Amino acid sequence: xxxxxxxxxxxxxxxxxxxxxxxxxxxxxxxxxxxxxxxxxxxxxxxxxxxxxxxxxxxxxxxxxxxxxxxxxxxxxxxxxxxxxxxxxxxxxxxxxxxxxxxxxxxxxxxxxxxxxxxxxxxxxxxxxxxxxxxxxxxxxxxxxxxxxxxxxxxxxxxxxxxxxxxxxxxxxxxxxxxxxxxxxxxxxxxxxxxxxxxxxxxxxxxxxxxxxxxxxxxxxxxxxxxxxxxxxxxxxxxxxxxxxxxxxxxxxxxxxxxxxxxxxxxxxxxxxxxxxxxxxxxxxxxxxxxxxxxxxxxxxxxxxxxxxxxxxxxxxxxxxxxxxxxxxxxxxxxxxxxxxxxxxxxxxxxxxxxxxxxxxxxxxxxxxxxxxxxxxxxxxxxxxxxxxxxxxxxxxxxxxxxxxxxxxxxxxxxxxxxxxxxxxxxxxxxxxxxxxxxxxxxxxxxxxxxxxxxxxxxxxxxxxxxxxxxxxxxxxxxxxxxxxxxxxxxxxxxxxxxxxxxxxxxxxxxxxxxxxxxxxxxxxxxxxxxxxxxxxxxxxxxxxxxxxxxxxxxxxxxxxxxxxxxxxxxxxxxxxxxxxxxxxxxxxxxxxxxxxxxxxxxxxxxxxxxxxxxxxxxxxxxxxxxxx
Length: 629
Prior knowledge:
Blueprint: H1 20-32, H2 44-56, H3 75-80, E1 89-90, H4 107-116, H5 131-138, E2 141-142, E3 147-150, E4 153-155, H6 159-166, H7 183-194, H8 198-208, E5 212-214, H9 215-222, H10 231-248, E6 258-260, H11 278-293, E7 300-301, H12 305-315, H13 317-320, H14 346-354, E8 383-387, E9 390-394, H15 422-430, H16 439-442, H17 458-465, H18 489-511, H19 518-533, H20 535-540, H21 613-628
Parallel strand pairs: 1-7
Antiparallel strand pairs: 2-3, 3-4, 5-6, 8-9
């Protein structure tokens, strides 16, 4: 009788080990078998709910998962659980652009590049990029909203930022490809548009192992062509230069050495290169790279890092940037800054962003740039932006403060359609004037330019749906795992609120200088002590809280703390008015011991004369100064 195998079939062959696919099928069959005890079955939905409860009470949220539905896989969620990763590797080709420059011998190529609207990319790239700074901002990127979730609200890179920083067109035809390019089609495209042979094209794509070509290969084969070459060679070199340019800037991929051949199709007709919305495509591509970098297992960031770094310099000038004093407004704003690598670690930058206040943000940085580069109306476009097979939502209604308007609670973000529905996306984009935010959606302008105002209910809503704090309190610099880590989440949030309010009060007093009386400084210290000890909350419970400021008033550090309690109603503070201004010099204040503590009586000599009070005071001051010397 033939032996029976484990699979249940009979065979005369010797017994063999099951393959991987057979083992997977058996596992699936075992999983669908009914269990004897229904209560012992583990439901995936129950596990997911338990996992969500870990973040429900965390300082900053999210408590409500209606917006950030994929937060469990986010790098910020892993950091809060104690896991961390090193700073991201960056793909930056700023130095490679200088290896292929267009001089006077290549004026024909330069004229075509200048007409394409991409000439500014040859000089506006940063040669240096800061890994800790960009990695810390990637940790705050949320894919569902395509915005950075800061402690005080959302911010993002808009089409206005792209137009001002890079000086490339943001209007025009959408860059769209019907389907991904096959290797054979890439070889045919190289032969047709670059004039290479079939052998050279096949060898290059095989070396890249994809429908791509190396940036070094483009420079070696076409950088030596000058105006003296034939017309066909100049056209081939121009297409190769443009492909090399967008591969080093707008569409830099994680290979760090190659560029996709599919973009060569955009340079088939060199007279139509300037008709594309290069800025919108660059922004969609960077959005997708930021989304990928929010996953814990990702270790590299692609896209045009110069755009992201210059955006950080523009909106957070006091924290990270060094301005170039020789800059003029006729040049792209990326050249306004001197790129540098900050000496801080990733954790240090992360904690600096956790402590960031709304007053430290430059909400409208391009006011001086409007004379040379007016505001593009397409920045108000609300819809999807596309780059080939990449489709990302664009939500200006979530960052109204960057346009000078009061931030309101935005609607839910929409899910972008599939890339295969490119015809509908193209038609929607071509009629972008019909999809701008209406005046009703924009709301009211801020009373003061750059104040970053929001409606009173915005922060309460933002606390519930966002993750405002990335670094856990027990893992901050100088902190140890103590009793504070065992506190409930609302207690930790209250402690952070008290510390931030006390620091804000002291910072406001220190910034006022020394032209105040001792009572003024004593009052500020007493107020900070009351905030830290919680005595102000006790007194506030027996008093009527002061009304909240109107949404059109300018928020000040004294009234808008960094962390806000869930109710957003603060107790009244003791008003300590400074003395009226005077031209007289401040009087000399001689320190005296407190009235409650009597100094020890010295043993007096009966034969010595009694000293007078003025002389004793003078002797006290002089002896103190002599001791300091």
